[in-house]
Amino acid sequence: MRILLFTGKGGVGKSTVSAGTAAMSAARGLRTLVLSTDAAHSLGDAFGVEHALGSEPVEVAEHLYVQHVDAQRRFEESWAEVQGYLLSVLDTIGVDRIAAEELTVIPGAEEVFALLELRRMAVSGEWDTIVVDCAPTAETLRLLALPEALGWYLERILPVQRKMVKALKPVLTKAAGVPMPGDSVFDALVRLHGELADVRALLSGPEASVRIVLTPERVVLAEARRSWTTLSLYGYRVDGVVANRIFPAGGSDDWRAGWVKAQDDVLGDVGASFEGLPVWRSFYRPAEPVGVEDLREVAEAAYAWTGSVDPLAVPDTPAPFRTESDGDGETTVVHLALPGLAQWVERDQVQLGRNGDELAITVGAYRRLLTLPAALARMRVSGARVEGGELRVTFSRQTTNTESE
Ligand SMILES: Nc1ncnc2c1ncn2[C@@H]1O[C@H](COP(=O)(O)OP(=O)(O)OP(=O)(O)O)[C@@H](O)[C@H]1O
Ligand SMILES: [Mg+2]
Fold this sequence. Notes:
Bound molecules: adenosine-5'-triphosphate, magnesium ion
Number of strands: 15
Number of helices: 12
């Protein structure tokens, strides 16, 4: 099963290109689902079927299904257990019911549950291709950082909580009448943790990739570059860029000629910025592409630009994260791809910290807490450098006595 995510700045054509890619996949006879995680769903508008869409997949053409994830509903299903408990606690201490309801809604919950829906669809085995129409860049980055971050949190909190609850239960229940969380609350949290780990594995696995949609404008390109670095930092594979809404050359109009020239300059920079990745080109159509056929044509035309790359095949782009050990296992180098590094972030903005089995990598405003595999956790960091668009961290066995950097 192939999973394709589309992201990019607001309004650049994410929904159009994701819908088109899905239509193209379905036309090849692949069972295809396109779903949006953006609360402002617009797939329905693109397909011209907004009235018919719901929170379950709806068939819009042969092999082609569309779904607007109802994050609120999924939220209620998965979180009900935990929320029920929190509500009972707040009730005991005298918090008003309406206020309590507000308090027990965790921020970012909608996004998490959109991801859980993606997982549910992926494990159902019903699909050959799942296309995800994501929200604009910043939200997508937050979304994709979530499974790991929440997992990290749950891994540390859960065992402690359980122990505390066991120890305090007799005392607390008697003293204040505060209800203690039952096993079902912990079970719900453990389940959530497992599901988030699945999401993470799915999205950083070899069959998933992210495509960045942009329009040939300086500001848009700047954001697209940064998101490439950040997506890589979080371990997601970017396998291509779609440059959309390109003005076709021709005619004698100065206004048009001006735009064509300006876009052409930026397109040159797009190629240079995303070196090694296919850059597909999609022209500005005379009208909004609406409906399965229009959308499919947009995608076919764009992907035809680099004829040799099959846009639905599993990408051969290297994974953003890999380790390499020398023969006797004395040293291991962790390679973390941070493409475009020199272009938008200075080397001194890359920071590395070590805390037990964790490696904290900060690039500009983004940070990733990487839990090290056991074998690496036992070693010490003996060097780190930025080279060839990668951060390379060298781990050595504890016994050596060179100074660590
Ligand atoms: N190549 C194109 N030619 C003509 N119109 C286009 C093209 N690509 C997109 N559009 C139109 O531009 C508008 C924005 O496109 P779309 O909704 O796909 O962008 P988006 O990135 O999903 O936006 P949002 O960030 O709001 O979700 C739509 O009206 C769409 O029909
Ligand atoms: Mg959209």
